[in-house]
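name: query_chain
kind: protein
chains: 1
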Amino acid sequence: MKSIRYLLVEDQLPDQFYTEVLIRNDQPQATVEIVGDGQQALNVLMEASDLAPPDVVPAPDVILLDINMPKMDGFEFLEAFSRAVAQGELRQRPLVLMLTSSDGVADRERANRYPCVYGYLVKPIDIEALNRVLKQAWDADD
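structure:
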């Protein structure tokens, strides 16, 4: 698997730690940037997209997005992200994978309304499930 740049959008420190260690153990070449809410994630994307050359602040390949967070939750992020893409403010199109502690049908259906969402993982995530979703998403793009 190629070296992947992840943006983990998660407010809970134990989940941040677990997810980062899981990815780094499976994908030693991966980079994992962690932010605590959707607004911070948008800020990272705007910096990578518009304020710096791509080789200085690379955009993430994958966004692991928690649903329930303070300030701006996962669905509020998806609305703002979709709006920024539609208005041409963001050019990159990272894969977005939703993370949640419950496997609620309503949340899954709501997430699937966004074309940028490629998968839905229940925490704590399983590395095989993550790799399977990534492979399916990238195979579909080829």
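note: The first strand starts at residue 5 and ends at 9.
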